Each structure stands twice: as structure tokens, then as C-alpha cells.
Amino acid sequence: RGIPREPGARWTEQGCQSCTCQRGRVLCEAVSCSVPCSHPLPAPAGGCCPMCTGCLHEGVARAEGDVFSPSNGNCTVCVCLAGNISCLSPECPPGSCPGPSPADCCSCAPGKCNFRGRTYAHGARFSLDGDDCTTCVCQGGEVECSFTPCPMLDCPQHQRHLGPGQCCSTCRDPPAPTGCFLDDNGTEFPVGQIWSPGDPCELCICQADGSVSCQRTDCVETCPYPIRIPGQCCPDCSAGCTYMGRIFSNNETFPSALDPCLSCICLVR
Description:
The structure is a single chain. 0% of the residues lie in helices and 35% in strands. The chain has no helices and 24 strands. A hairpin with an 8-residue loop joins strand 14 (160-161) and strand 15 (170-171). It starts with 9 loop residues before the first strand and ends with a strand.
């Protein structure tokens, strides 16, 4: 193939052929591999012989020391050691199991329960005689009883009620409202009470159902320079005038703040 080889030289051709040069002739034969393990990994790229530094089991490559369960399960555990697969299966006890077992492990039937003269199958749920508030269940030959769970209640403790023959408490209907309770300052107003919540232009009334109804006052009287009295909703146009931050009474004359040569007068109309 155009490459000179020395007498006695050995090399490997493609297709895992081992060749040697003898007396001017090339002799080739298939590479012979000695595989000392039961589940070797395939030869790596460019190699000819399988490797025993891992395992190939059911088409899946396993690393050295890898512990796994085969696909057919049944609780068998396998380990990869030097290219060999070793598996161990559990020893299942004879007869019935003390409890329910997974389907992929030992095949056995959980035992029945004998309780107060009656026999119950595994998984059966029942109530005690005369006590509907207790629920029992048969688990692998043993009976476990517990109180029937009650739903969470969103009412305060003083509104909860446990009736005769009931397992769980219920919420009583809240009493009819006797007034309006305000969360912002903790003040309670009787039904029909009218008050201002802080804005002099707004009035509120306590309704019979405990709700609060508020309404704003519309100011009708307007003038260009009204006097605003603290605590009073609408501006006062009859008491005088407000001009440049100062208050002047009716018919009072004062100089203009913009032009000292102008004289102004407050006229209530």
C-alpha cells in the first residue's frame, strides 16, 4: 500500500487484521482477543478487543462498581465488577406478609383482621359500633383507629357549636348587627348615627344592616375670593374676601399687592 515495512514488523490494518512482514511478503490474520469477563464493553473507537473495565448488561453500559436492578425487577440487585455481573435476589418469607408489599417484590397476600368478633379484609375501613366519629382501617392484620377529621372553621371560638350526635363543630350564625364598627379607630356607631369621618364635606350614616353609607356635600355658592373657614365644608362668600393670603372684611379698602398705585375694595355680592 505504498508504505515500506521492515522485516519482522507487525501492525494492525482496518477491520482488526494483524499483519506482519516476513521475507518480503505481508501475512495478515484476524486479531485474536482474549476476553476474561462475562459482560465486556464493546471495543472503543479505533480498537479491536472488548474491555473489561465496565459491563454491558441488557444493552446498557454500566460503570465499574455500578449497582442496579435489572428490568425484570423482582427486587433483584446486581453489581458490575471487572466486566462481570453478579446479582442477588431477596429471600421471601413463606405465608402471608405483615403488611402490603410492592408488586415487584415478594408475592404474598396481606393478612386479614379479626376485631371485636368480626373479620375484615386488608384495606377495609369501618366505624366502631355506636361511634360514628371514629374511623378504623385494617392494615396487614392489624386495626388502626383514629378520630374522623373535621374541617377547618373560619369563625371565632365563641361562635362554634357542637350539636347532639355530631362529630365536628359548626359555625353559628353571627348575631344581627346593632351598629357599625369602624376598623380604623375602633369606634362603634349605633344605627342611624350621622358623623363626618374627617372630611367636612363628607357625611356618613350607620345603616340598619351594619353597613356605612357616605355622601359628599356639593357647594353651590361660589365667588372669586371666598373665605375658607377651618372645619367648614363650603367657602363663605358673605363674610368677606381672601386676597393674596389675607382676609378682608366687607367694604374694606386695601392696596393691591401687584401695583401699589391701585386700591382694592372687598365687596360681598
